[in-house]
Amino acid sequence: MKTVMKEYDVNVEKPSLLGMISAPILQFERMKEKAPIALPLIIILLLTGLSGAIVSYVGLNNPIIKDLPTPIEIPTSFTVGMGIVGALFGGVARLFIVAAFYKLCMVFMGNDAPYMKLFAVVLYSSLIMSVGVLINGLISLSVGGYEVYYTSIAPLMGDNQMLKLIASNFDIFHIWYYVVLGIGLKVVIGLSKNKVFTLVIIVFLLGVAFSSLGGLVPTPGM
Q1: Whose CB among 72, 129, 183, 184 lies 3.0–4.6 Å from 121's, allowing a Cys bridge?
Q2: Mean pLDDT of 191-218
């Protein structure tokens, strides 16, 4: 019996992080048995650090910075370095906080899903968001822009900062991320379709609300 169980453990395929793009359901099915964390987390952090470097670099083209009465001379290397550090710390914190939030939601829903299972679902799903930020950063870099909203409807909002921040949530990769996350919550955690739909919509609307609050912060020169 022990031999059979050992052979079963060896033959169970591990979920593939990159497979989340082409076959997320298959990866989540595999995640029911095994959900490796270490390597996927390293890959996500590498993507996050790279995206942070690019986003901070293109941010130097922001007209608000260039139009300051007294220009601030900040070394590019320092800006990029801080962008990487901020992205890494922020990225790690976000993963753990988001997983904790869903754990709290599971408690209210009467679901006893382990925290690490939820963390795995959030971690693997976040690949979509990480790729989206990287692609938008590369687009901004190639066109000499300073924003990273190109795959959303934000560019259609003109100069209204609040509308742009709200519209940035209506992004191809954001929506894709929530769809994949919802699939993970259903397949791995066992939530019903109705509960998944309700939870994902609430979280999405909360994101839109927080974005609108960010638009209330006064910006110099505007």
Answers
A1: 184
A2: 80
